[in-house]
Fold this protein.
Amino acid sequence: MLPRLRYCLLLFSLSTTLSLPSYGQRTDDGPPTNDPFPRPNALARSIAAYRSHQYTAGQLSIRATDGATLRVRPWATGVVRVDYFPAGRPTQPDSSISVVTTATADLAVGMRETAQSLELKLPENLRVTVSKRPLRVHLLRGTDTVATEAWGAFQRGATTSSLSETGVSFRLRPGEQLYGTGARALPLDRRGRRLELYNQARYAYQNGTENLNLTLPVVVSSRGYAVFFDNHTAGYLDLGATNKSVLEYGGEALRNLGYFLVTGDSYAIILDRYTVLTGRQPLPPRWALGLIQSRFGYRSQAETEAVAQRMRREGFPLDALVLDLYWFGTTKDQGNLDWDYQKFPKPATMMRNLDSVGVKTILISEPYVMRASRNDSVVRTQGLIGTDSVGRPFTVASFWAGPASLLDMFKPSAHEWLWSYYKKRKTEGVGGWWSDLGEPENHPTEMHHVTGSTRQIHNAYGQAWASIFAENYAQEYPQERLFNLARSGWAGMQRHSVFPWSGDINRSWSGFQAQIPIMLGVGMGGVGYMHSDAGGFCVGPIDPELYTRWLQMASLCPIMRPHGEGVPPEPYYYPEPYKSIVRNAARQRYELLPYLYTLAWQNAQTGAPLARPMNYEAASGLDNEQLGNVNDQYLLGPNLLVAPIVQPGQRRRNVLLPAGTWIDFYSHETLTGRQIVGRNAPLERVPLLVRAGAFLPLAPYVNTTARYHTDTLRVRFYADYAVPQSSFTVYEDDGKSAQAMAGGQFQLLAFAGATSATQTDIRISTSGQGYAKMPPSRIIELLIPRVAAAPAAVLVTGQPAPADTWRYDTATQTLQVRVRFQNQPLTVAIQGLRLNTFYTAAAPDRLTLAAPSDRIFDGRTTLNYTLHTPGQYTLRIRDAQGQVVRTFAAATEMGVHEVSWNAEDQNGRRLPGGVYTAEMLGQHQRLVLVRPD
């Protein structure tokens, strides 16, 4: 393979793009044979008018004139549950696979009735009002209506039909933006879309694919509320697609419908309350935040060991290796759940040796048992799989690898059987798990499970599977943290220690561009660790620039995991300078581990995702339209702004800054917020900005978290006169104990800054019981950038600091102070600190020339560009010799535009095959014209 790779890279350097064969895990990219959510044609019947009501123990139950029942129950502060029970149905809600809390008693102050409505008064100046004619639920804060039903709860279709719908709708305000809904290769603001709630595998998907492996019935509104539909049947969300002023949910064949309204003054409060309701994500093992190397797939023990050795030899950090399909044999052996001892003769020894050098082993498993598997007869005779309508074992004949059985994850016996194998592998030394195909990928509608039909339970399948790991780890390995890499699930999946990835993405710029809104959309649904197969999974050609830009972004994402098939995903295969650039990005991630690990703690405490939309902490409130649909940059925690490069050839990009002052991580340039600025983006790095006033903790680089230590912390303090008070708390524990937070076995290091024109004080203190092997003291290296001159004096706890403990660097304008912190409060006072607050003029680029629809084409491609500033511009096509062969007059108005080029010159003559370049205002995109003849 290596000679071929060298040849491919040589061809790339000669500007010829190579496309290698794909060995995907599906035979096509089409949707399931059966439409996952066919819509009934019948008209909707809304709930009728008020007949009577009963108010007991804070719960309001209303009987409608059509016999239906509407029930309103305050659940927790800022959280209200509404249930709709159609006529003739018992007023008992379906069991929830998502909710883990019970309603809080005595939340409602009381109930008030008028001729027109019933009203419950709640804490935080909230009121739930139910209008009587017709019955509609409204949530108000003071006099402001937060959320209001449109035509209320409804039914569509015959109530006895499996295609009937039960749903509810809400009014949308002009400018209201809608987030969440799960993994969608769509803009972050999902308004105007009709989206399926049915988890689906999409092989080689790209930007624009609406429905993927992980859908979530959670919509977060810029109006300050979230609505969570607590039903897991096949469903849909119509977010203003049919009626631009209406949000509608429908669930198939529901006996009743339940939803929660969750309110808050910020997205942080909303997600805090939502993840209390559905469960918090436990802390990951610290190694999960390191570099996890994967491939489809390592085929032998020798190859696996060689990859770890090569990563170390080439200077890359590494914390885990993922074994894909071949650890148990061939694709026909899925379901064996045991090693192929011919290829992996001593797996326990292999994993022990890897672990000794700080590399965990992660094993894949699938929910399918091949008919060719040695376990085929076992799962069928013991009744562990899905069945047909009369209870006979069901064969999934159309599964991509061949005929297979699908385990019924809702049967306790299937749980026990699977865990017996997982436990054996765990005892041998497996460090983490990979749960693949858990949508399930191929799930025939004729199949039945112990708890219902395919369409009733499909979305719950991944949740049931993940619970096997979570429940058994809690019981048998209560001190050990769980890592479960999965690509599907449902609301509440985060509490099972699931670390989702975005599925089988096309190795293309389009596929790459989809990853930021996917990550942010899932994060706004309470799942904080969404990430991608860094570098792209399948189909696309070798593209070192794409790989580099993708890995740069991955190094600043919740999880960094290169993975792919068809071309090597390991970074050491790429030529210089790409290899060194990726190495530097990975090393920088390891230096940021104190910050990243603290974000993980914040997520476990509050549900805040690690990667956040640009308006997550918008000072002007939730309803911020400019920041509310930014799809190519994000906040990493509260203090870092990441602006990845998602266009080929791009060496500069525009960055939209939130309010406040922002400082370049590399150059320390100062930028004013609330504007768009242009930032240089050489291949070596992507724009990375720090919020003024922030403390940013870093640690010395190590090549595995097994060697991670915080006896030295390098803390950058971005002091700023405009931020007189600031703070940040660093979380530290042993990185592995599952009970660390609950048992108080951690330490919090609090940094507080006070900045004035005459003095800057930095106070360091600790809390918490501490943990095993905690450093008895730490060297803390404070670094303050943008310092105009040496200070008058540096005092440590009121005493002059020794001259050798602080240094002012004139060239970089940074002040460094080194102190020993012995777990007692300590204050560093810097007298006469003068900050350089000169703001950098950074005019935005006037346009962005984006990747074409097809970089390799045989007759026509579409050239895309965005005008940020109106004006007269020209788009030119040049041949390989640099001669202009075609010009286009560009649009003049701001916005996204496109030009179609049919591979002809200015005179309409057919151009020969070769390499061409689209050029516009100094920006370039390479095109490869392939002529079949």
